[in-house]
Structure prediction request, 196 residues.
Amino acid sequence: MGWIIFGIVAVILIGVLVTLYILGNRMQKKQLEQKKQMVDAAQPATMLIIDKKIMPMKDAGLPKIVMEQTPKKYQKAKVPVVKAKIGPQIMTLICDDAIFDDVPKRGEVKAMVSGIYLVSVKSIRKVKKSAAEIAEEEANAKKKKKGFREKMRAKQVAYQKQLSADMESQKSKEEEKKYKERVKKEREREKKIEKF
Prediction:
């Protein structure tokens, strides 16, 4: 009797694990496609970073249409937000979690922006910090222990960096394949020319 119950529980657990694995792969592929679309739609912009924070979406000051399209349960979620001056306009942008730590606080950057989403950042000029500000930041970093949210964010950043690396490797494989096809076509064309 005990072996039958154990067998049934084992079969159910294996079924659940297989289902989670399949769903995880589908979600990962979907996320990869969305990231590709976002990167393809991104446009370069030079901006002056005014401030950056991780705050609830409803308090971030995002455009009204964004808040209307976001489900209620996600409006309370904390997101990395960057306030930047792009040309004459001051805008609030949602930053990619993987690059949030690379965004300088108060500095000029060249960035790739897709809508209100900051995809990548390259620093141009940083505003120099005083010795007191540096000492204060170091003291805060030592005092502050990482909570559950910070640990989970660090894991998420690591996963997003891995995803970006995977996208780059896939892109380079596709480019290599196209290059080989182009070389093959050129050789075939040269052979046809030599026959004549």
Summary: The helical segments are 2-41, 64-69, 72-75, 131-143, 148-195. The chain is about 55% helix and 25% strand. The two ends are 83 Å apart (CA to CA).
